[in-house]
Amino acid sequence: MVKLAEVVMILDMHRQGLSVSAIARELGIDRKTVRKYIARGLEPPVYGPRLPRPRLIDAYVVYLRERVSAYPGLSSRRLLREIRERGYRGGYTAVSDALRDLRPPCEAGYEVRFETPPGDQGQVDFSHFEAAFTDEPGVVRRIWLFSLVLSFSRLIWARFVQHQDLQTVLRCHRAAFTTLGGVPRTILYDRMKTAVTGEPEPGQIVYNRHLVDFAAHHGYQPRACRPYRAKTKGKVERPYRYIRQDFFLGRTFRNLDDLNAQLDHWLETVANPRTHATTGRVITEAFAEERPHLKTLPLTPYRTVLKLERRITRDGMVSIGGNLYSVPDSTRRRTVEVQCLAEEILILEDGQVVAAHQVVEGRNQRRLTPGHRRPARPADPRPAERGEAVIAERPGDRVAHRPLAVYESIARGLARQGAQP
Fold it and tell me: In the chain, how many domains are there?
């Protein structure tokens, strides 16, 4: 075997004029080899493939092939136990590597697209965004996009929010139902905490009690998708990339309200009037067909509440969800009950509502009702400020006014003292 360095020396000696015999004697190689590399020139030597080394697993390859051909689902661990009973002394890795080539190929079938009838299903999820509002230069806000997509028509209702708490989720549901003019019979959720609180056993899902009450009030059935199976709710997953690329990127927004106003306009003029690539139908036309199949909204609003206890601050405010809400000056207790509705905050003292506020979006905001603070009493102006003359008096110039009975009592007392010896 001739190495690359020796090939270089052969060619160098040949250029210097040495004969083939002299080069062979100098390097200790055959003259035929010298002639071969002089004719070939400077090319790296080509070696043949190495002969495979014998392996411990080779004696059991036929057995493993027969087993996985008959039962493709047999695990590598089980087959390892079986061949060890037949004398195999190697490790698990060699068995798994061999089975990777021996198992019959598993052909993945085509995915079957699942289409739902009109009004049957909606899909809900959140997606994370980061926004820099022009009203707050240099500050990057972490916000969330709530989206509800009707599975039949692919109509999108979406809103940017700053929280993923239950109150925000219920408020977005209510606003979406109002805009759509109805409720789908089933809503599919990702396993977010506001929808699913646990899974004690596989297949046994524990839903959030308040979400179940909300769903029962509006007449729909909540369902959780299978874990790590984003394709089961692909109708709401795919629009997030579409919204990010076609709407969100490259725009400027003053604040969250301006962001949602631009989003509403984009949904109304661009997203929902388009022809959907999968269904081949105009989304708004498909929604016109689906809308009569939605369940009607209940006449009464959802009033089930989240009850909390909060302490009133020194300036008469109650902290709820990172925001401050006022209570009247007449509130006596320092601790009050708070009831969080979907769209309203109620503050109660001894079971009586003392303050009602609309829910404030975001954090670190104050909502003060003007009637909750008594107007300050103006101080009595000085006589000079009232335009009156200032009269300097000496002590005793003013005589106190007393009833005559007081003087009569004093006189009788003095007379008794003078009659005594």
Answer: 4
